[in-house]
Each structure stands twice: as C-alpha cells, then as structure tokens.
Amino acid sequence: MLTGAVFNAAGVPIPAPPNFAGVMGVVGVFLGYRLVEWATVALL
Question: Where are the transmembrane segments (predicted)?
C-alpha cells in the first residue's frame, strides 16, 4: 500500500497491467509456480 501511495503522491500511473491479458499473465505465472511446487512434492 505504501508503494501505491508514493505513486499517487508523485502523480504517476501505477506500473501494473491495465487489461485482462496482463492480469491473466500474472495468474498464469502464479498457477505455473504452484503446479511445479505440487509436482515436486508429489513425485519426490
């Protein structure tokens, strides 16, 4: 939240994806991480 407040005080836009594709990219990275984590535990 502090970072968001700094960006607001500086009057610059938040460096975040403004569209659905960007959000889905972040979700995909997270789900891929969790999948590999699960596979590592399940297979070892």
Answer: 20-36
Question: Which pLDDT tens digits describe the chain residue by residue (44 residues)?
Answer: 788 888 889 998 877 767 888 888 889 999 999 999 999 999 87
Structure-block tokens of residue 32: 């891929």
Q: Which two tokens stand for residue 7?
A: 């960006």
**Cα gap 29→20, rounded to integer Å:** 14
Q: How many other β-carbons are positioned within 10 Å of the β-carbon of residue 12?
A: 9
- pTM here is 0.56
| Residue 32 burial (CB count, 10 A) | 10
CB atoms within 10 A of CB 9: 8
